Amino acid sequence: MDTPDLEIQLKTLPNQPGVYQYYDKEGVIIYVGKAKNLKKRVSSYFTKTHENGKTRVLVKKIVNIKHIVVETETDALLLENNLIKKHRPRYNVLLKDDKSYPWICIKKERFPRVFSTRRVFKDGSDYFGPYTSGKTVHTLLDLIKGLYSLRNCNFNLSEEKVEAGKYKVCLEYHLGNCKGACEGLETEAEYNENIKAIKEILKGNFKDSLSQFKMQMKQYAENMQFEEAQKIKEKVAILENYQAKSTIVNPKISNVDVFSIMSDESYGYVNFLQLSYGSIIRSHTLEIKKKLDETDLQLLELAIIEIRQRFKSNSREIYAPFKIDLGEDVKVTVPKLGDKKHILDLSLRNAKYFRMDRFKQMKIVDPDRHTNRIMAQMKVDLRLSEEPRHIECFDNSNIQGTHPVAACVVFKNGKPSKKDYRHFNIKTVEGPDDFASMEEVVYRRYKRLLEEEQPLPQLIIIDGGKGQLSSALKSLDALNLRGKIAIIGIAKRLEELFYPNDPIPLYLDKKSETLKITQQLRNEAHRFGIEHHRNKRSKTALNTELETISGVGEKTVVELLKHFKSAKRVANAKLDELEAVVGASRAEKVYNYYHEK
């Protein structure tokens, strides 16, 4: 599918946080931005009148929009920063500086220091972040210093120098902020236990530390030190909202290409994320048309070769959802847990959203292709021998056996065909018997279609479990239609699909389009049946009360309802008003009935 018009692209953007990229007619990125809601933010560019001349020029030059969906606003902010630094779009001039976000470093040394930095070095030290708020970094460092006694000097505390007594404890030791590692007053093992706990805090596993902080806050409050308690309360609030990790930037992951695939009956969608020094610098999704029922593995192998050539990627490592043979020069990793798995999940998330956008665009641009895809998918999902272009669904409605009715709704090409809907009043069944009612209705429906030589559906759906399905099958047997039309039953509670002569129900994926259309059919049949049942019941109730009045016949009831429009208005009418419609004798009988009552 070619790049759709801007108007269609705007209509199909997701309501998710992410980063959007604007391209001009030469295919060059001219602007990168972040959004809490991609659809609202990007649409605002084209619906508002911009006072800023630069923005007006930018909007005129936009030909194509790409987006990367992420989980949080924080991730969107960091990804925006990465992409601007990589691509340097001409309309992002305000952000073309070398600003970098703060990290917390645990230095690789004896008695490690813990401090904030804006520069990441590959020296074996542990870096946590990046953080979008300096306040969060200071709060974390304050929390760590409040819980653990750490050194903040820059001395080289090698074993030889400490044993030689080269250093003396400073004021920090006397204030209780340090345990005097420089004089050997604290063992390396004790210090490293604290560092281990600090790493857990920075990873987000600070449950124990938070509980200690809250106890401290409680003690301040009990001692009437409310200002101190409030300060800790603010820090606790920041930490509880603090997001420990970003999927977008991870210094442990170096230059890597990440690939994931999402596919359906006709197409495969391969997403590519390019990471440079732990930062995502590119995202691209490729749509591949299936020709010979290729597997995901085959499609991914083809896509990886093409994408790496197109973007001139020389990365020696690839993350993929399954093992792929790309030769000895490239290492293929299949992540199962942790940061690598998170980045693969992000890639898959973008492949899914790309596929959803394509479906929405397809509905607008090429509705036939959209319908064909859904029909092909339903055929596979429901294990049918042909595509269900014409589906009919039946539902019974009765309340304690009164006014039993049934409804048949018809879907053609996955959409309601309301002119073909039919109501049925149950004729041969006494009392509340859903099974017998279903048998009668299915028999009447298809006997008539056969007599009138109308086209039969490819699929019948029965609202109910095994019992209703068996009853419907009796009617198909009687009409010699068993095997000519596929028939299934859908049970309400667990959305189980029952098939003839199969005791084990089929469960569809809760998010699948096949289940959604099946549920829509069932709900529409239920609504249509209840509507008919309600109309019949209310009509009967109206007529019954007026007809019980002695000396008042059907003709009088019709005249009264025609004039007063409802039984309630008849009941509230004055005697002279009734006389004007049905004469003095009958008016008196109606008036006396309601007023004596």
Automatic annotation (TrEMBL):
UVR domain: from which residue to which, for each copy?
207-242
| PROSITE patterns cross-referenced by the UniProt entry | GIY_YIG, UVR, UVRC
Q: Indicate the segments annotated as coiled coil, or none if absent.
A: none
Q: Tell me which residues make up the UvrC family homology region profile domain.
A: 262-476
Keywords on record: Cytoplasm, DNA damage, DNA excision, DNA repair, Excision nuclease, SOS response
Q: What InterPro entries would the database entry show?
A: GIY-YIG_endonuc, GIY-YIG_endonuc_sf, GIY-YIG_UvrC_Cho, RuvA_2-like, UVR_dom, UVR_dom_sf, UvrABC_protein_C, UvrC
Instruction: List the subcellular locations.
Output: Cytoplasm
User: What family classification does the UniProt entry report for this protein?
Assistant: Belongs to the UvrC family.
Q: What function does the entry list?
A: The UvrABC repair system catalyzes the recognition and processing of DNA lesions. UvrC both incises the 5' and 3' sides of the lesion. The N-terminal half is responsible for the 3' incision and the C-terminal half is responsible for the 5' incision.
HAMAP family tied to this protein? UvrC
Name the record gives this protein: UvrABC system protein C
Organism field: Algibacter agarivorans
